[in-house]
Amino acid sequence: MKLTLIGNGVMAQSLAKGLIKNHEVEIIGRDENKLKTIQEKIPGITIKILDDNEDITDKNILFCVKPYALHSVSARLSGKANMLFSILAGTTLDTLKKQIEAKHYVRTMPNVAASVQFSTTTITGDKEAKTTAVEIFSSIGKAIWVNTENQLDIATAIAGSGPAYLALIAEALADGGVKAGLERHTCYELVQGLMEGTSKLLKSNHPAIIKDSVMSPGGTTAAGVSQLEEGAVRDSMIKAVNKAYEKACELGKK
Ligand SMILES: NC(=O)C1=CN([C@@H]2O[C@H](COP(=O)(O)OP(=O)(O)OC[C@H]3O[C@@H](n4cnc5c(N)ncnc54)[C@H](OP(=O)(O)O)[C@@H]3O)[C@@H](O)[C@H]2O)C=CC1
Ligand SMILES: O=C(O)[C@@H]1CCC=N1
């Protein structure tokens, strides 16, 4: 299937890197130099400068600009797309329908791990497009269809934003190791292996079971966990997800 990405930023490039393995991919942007650089990095994609009257008739569009750019970019589109897949945080199906003509509308929330085909993507919208949407996003990781836009907004706060939270934790763990005197490159090697191993354990174990299995009475982990509780790390994570969800809802009202 041919997919046309509109926008050439971080997410468009992450998606293109993953999708090119299974699809024909075209990227439309406004800056020729940026597009040429992307084409060098991702061989096989086609690039196109956004026209003032860009014809999207019958195309399968992945809309990848920032939510605030929706109006200005959609004003330059003409014709009726086949499927419109939006990755815009918060932006509702109703808003999309008012701005861009398409036969089918789908909201998706991939994450930046799409570039390594490990995105966790939530999808909702037109049920007629469900099979195609799940097929496309399964080619770059895990694809989960949800029944409401509200669920997608909550998923945005976990898996869309989540790589930033986990990267922040990874960096902090490495900083802790450096503070204690270990070389930074070794700390990052440890953190990378730790994240990968824990992710594998999480596939078949409840988080609480993993935590309990590591925490020996009077041991090192108990000392560390107690410090995390003092820093209200769990409470902060819960609040972070809820703040991000509220922001998605707020973006949807604009
Ligand atoms: N970053 C992430 O991890 C995730 C982001 N998202 C969503 O993806 C979308 C894109 O985010 P991200 O890739 O991070 O953002 P970027 O800022 O990296 O990319 C935005 C793109 O939109 C283009 N653009 C903006 N205004 C215009 C315009 N008027 N005409 C043509 N092109 C325009 C920019 O062009 P130019 O390069 O020329 O400035 C750029 O290519 C957002 O809606 C976000 O909510 C969803 C999931 C994860
Ligand atoms: O921060 C954002 O708004 C976007 C949506 C999910 C990840 N990045």
UniProtKB/TrEMBL annotation:
Supply the enzyme class, top level: oxidoreductase
Protein location: Cytoplasm
Please classify the protein's predominant subcellular localization into one broad category.
cytoplasm
Per the record, what are the reactions this protein catalyses? L-proline + NAD(+) = (S)-1-pyrroline-5-carboxylate + NADH + 2 H(+); L-proline + NADP(+) = (S)-1-pyrroline-5-carboxylate + NADPH + 2 H(+)
The residue ranges of the Pyrroline-5-carboxylate reductase catalytic N-terminal domain are 2-89
Pathway per its UniProt entry is: Amino-acid biosynthesis; L-proline biosynthesis; L-proline from L-glutamate 5-semialdehyde: step 1/1
Give the signal peptide range. none
- Example GO molecular function: pyrroline-5-carboxylate reductase activity
Q: Keywords of this protein's UniProt record, alphabetized?
A: Amino-acid biosynthesis, Cytoplasm, NADP, Oxidoreductase, Proline biosynthesis
List the EC numbers from the record. Answer: 1.5.1.2
- Domain (Pyrroline-5-carboxylate reductase dimerisation) spans 149-251
- State what this protein does: Catalyzes the reduction of 1-pyrroline-5-carboxylate (PCA) to L-proline.
Q: Which family does it belong to?
A: Belongs to the pyrroline-5-carboxylate reductase family.
Q: What is this protein called?
A: Pyrroline-5-carboxylate reductase
